[in-house]
Amino acid sequence: MIQFDLCLCQCLLILLGFYFLYFISCELSFITEPCHVTVLPNDPALLDCQAHGQPPVTIKWFKNGAKLAESQHFQFLSNGSLFIPKTTHTKEESDEGVYQCLSQNKYGAILSQRSRLTIASISEFVLLPVPVVATEGSVARFSCSVSSSPTASITWECPFTVLMVTFSKLSVFRITVLPNGVLQIHNVQQEDSGQYGCVATNIGSRLKSRTATLTVNKVFKIPRIIAGPQNTTVSLHQTAVLECVATGNPRPIISWSRADSKPIDVYKAKVLGNGNLVITDVSSKHSGVYVCRATTPGTRNHSTAAANVTVLVPPTIVEKPESQTRPRAGTARFMCRAEGIPEPRISWLKNGEEVHLNGRIKMYNRYSQIL
């Protein structure tokens, strides 16, 4: 009798093992998900999507939340990927947008990560250099900004000569070009007078601005911050740029501090040029109010400006929902809790489609439970 029970128990364990392996093989999972893609106008684009699960597995594509129909323009490849032979980017019609693929079999569906398709372009300048009057020994500042995809690099000419490369009249130690395209000329001299223009370039195009005149005067002035730091919001591990440009004669000394008296992170922060604070690989501890102070050497004459840095922390699911088996008309409770800055908003999907709350389905906020 004992031997029979032992054999029966072993048989049940083997059956359970086969069931578990079958269940695992039925579950869907992505082999490849679409990534962000940047292409030139009229070039082809390929968005990869491959999934594994119990056949048959079907792949559907969505653009900006709307389902795509297969056509000559949107071609669905046999492996699940989306191919666009010739991308379109006009005012009336554009292939730019956010794409996702939905993988589905008879056991359920999964939705891929968002993939942004960007078609390289440069629009007109949104910020052009304007004439500047500066005093000897102070700082001259020119701004230049353009709307582009992907982000354009900015170079400067004075005139018709690329600054920082072959420009012979200025010492490179007096010139700073910030990542956002701002040009600063420190310790301005009379020979710096002239016409300054910027050039925006990305993989799609090249655009040259009109020029602006720099006039240099000999006038004594107390410290004055002409371009102080601006409130800025940056994503985790990105770079925060806090500009601080001050005029005065003699040239003011620029220093930085935090309003909460905490020390500035010397490992991640550095001064670029003559007073601009650049913080790389930011984390939540870098959030706070930063104060720029311009002081005349040997005096108490000073001017200050402050700005707040907010570091965005992407949402992280700290409590995940678990698969459940419930009898018909029973109650299922799924838990989901996330953290991030700002506080994440949680929504629920069933088979890739958003769940709408009703009398049977309810969601409770603190831990975002759905019943």
UniProtKB/TrEMBL annotation:
<comment type="similarity">
    <text>Belongs to the immunoglobulin superfamily. DCC family.</text>
</comment>
<dbReference type="InterPro" id="IPR003599">
    <property type="entry name" value="Ig_sub"/>
</dbReference>
<feature type="transmembrane region" description="Helical">
    <location>
        <begin position="7"/>
        <end position="25"/>
    </location>
</feature>
<dbReference type="InterPro" id="IPR036179">
    <property type="entry name" value="Ig-like_dom_sf"/>
</dbReference>
<dbReference type="InterPro" id="IPR013098">
    <property type="entry name" value="Ig_I-set"/>
</dbReference>
<keyword id="KW-0812">Transmembrane</keyword>
<dbReference type="Pfam" id="PF07679">
    <property type="entry name" value="I-set"/>
</dbReference>
<dbReference type="Pfam" id="PF13927">
    <property type="entry name" value="Ig_3"/>
</dbReference>
<keyword id="KW-0325">Glycoprotein</keyword>
<feature type="domain" description="Ig-like">
    <location>
        <begin position="28"/>
        <end position="118"/>
    </location>
</feature>
<dbReference type="InterPro" id="IPR003598">
    <property type="entry name" value="Ig_sub2"/>
</dbReference>
<keyword id="KW-1015">Disulfide bond</keyword>
<feature type="domain" description="Ig-like">
    <location>
        <begin position="123"/>
        <end position="215"/>
    </location>
</feature>
<keyword id="KW-0677">Repeat</keyword>
<keyword id="KW-0393">Immunoglobulin domain</keyword>
<keyword id="KW-0472">Membrane</keyword>
<comment type="function">
    <text>May play a role in anteroposterior axis elongation.</text>
</comment>
<feature type="domain" description="Ig-like">
    <location>
        <begin position="315"/>
        <end position="371"/>
    </location>
</feature>
<dbReference type="InterPro" id="IPR013783">
    <property type="entry name" value="Ig-like_fold"/>
</dbReference>
<dbReference type="InterPro" id="IPR007110">
    <property type="entry name" value="Ig-like_dom"/>
</dbReference>
<keyword id="KW-0732">Signal</keyword>
<dbReference type="GO" id="GO:0016020">
    <property type="term" value="C:membrane"/>
</dbReference>
<dbReference type="GO" id="GO:0098609">
    <property type="term" value="P:cell-cell adhesion"/>
</dbReference>
<keyword id="KW-1133">Transmembrane helix</keyword>
<feature type="domain" description="Ig-like">
    <location>
        <begin position="223"/>
        <end position="310"/>
    </location>
</feature>
<protein>
    <recommendedName>
        <fullName>Ig-like domain-containing protein</fullName>
    </recommendedName>
</protein>
